[in-house]
């Protein structure tokens, strides 16, 4: 069974998104600058409890995976869903059922939004059970599936801290947030890099992903 899952996930991974395709009609893959961030309505763990991401304000303490509560440096607001996003399935968000990523309520993720996952195989392989994976690779895993975007523009919030952080969303899932220094523009190649090597998290190589995803699928029991 695990061999079959590994083959299926290897086929699903496909090539890495290319920044040069961003925003172009007929683009096959989205880059991070148009397919990451947290959709308005996503609940984030803060010093005031679970709050909608669009209601957060700079300076507010947010609960992080590594460093307890950390002040939010800034948040960027954008609206997504161009005609390209609706026509190209690679741009479609992923619908995450309850419990699939530790979330206590349904969750919607952009395809290039990195999430932090716990894996026994990762611990055996790297000595650390937590790995970063872009959400697009989770299509078909634990009941997660691509859902066509809404007709209307969707507000998307990008949270930024003094350093790379993973934050708790929708009751327990872990969403990765890139750091951004004050006044700094994030380079396009960083926006479109599916990894996060500077964060200190393990980012499995593409040829290692099928094993990890298959093991995660095997280990999950639907809620």
Automatic annotation (TrEMBL):
Pfam families: Hint_2. Residues 38-171 form the Hedgehog/Intein (Hint) domain. InterPro entries: Hedgehog/Intein_dom. It comes from the Bacteria. This is Hint domain-containing protein.
């Amino acid at each position: 069974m695990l061999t079959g899952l590994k083959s299926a996930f290897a086929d699903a991974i496909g090539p890495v998104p290319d920044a040069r395709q961003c925003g172009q009609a007929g683009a096959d893959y989205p880059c991070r600058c148009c397919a990451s961030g947290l959709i308005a309505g996503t609940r984030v763990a803060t010093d005031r409890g679970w709050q909608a991401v669009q209601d957060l304000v700079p300076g507010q303490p947010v609960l992080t995976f590594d460093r307890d509560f950390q002040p939010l440096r800034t948040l960027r607001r954008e609206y997504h869903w161009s005609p390209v996003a609706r026509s190209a399935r690679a741009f479609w968000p992923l619908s995450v059922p309850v419990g699939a990523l530790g979330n206590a309520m349904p969750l919607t993720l952009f395809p290039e939004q990195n999430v932090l996952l716990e894996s026994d195989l990762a611990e055996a392989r790297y000595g650390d059970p937590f790995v970063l994976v872009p959400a697009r690779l989770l299509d078909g895993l634990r009941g997660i599936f691509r859902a066509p975007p809404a007709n209307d523009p969707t507000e998307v919030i990008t949270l930024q801290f003094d350093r790379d952080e993973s934050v708790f969303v929708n009751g327990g899932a872990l969403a990765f947030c890139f750091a951004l220094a004050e006044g700094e523009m994030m380079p396009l190649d960083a926006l479109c890099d599916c990894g996060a090597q500077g964060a200190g998290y393990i980012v499995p190589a593409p040829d290692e992903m099928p094993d990890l995803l298959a093991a995660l699928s095997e280990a999950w029991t639907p809620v």
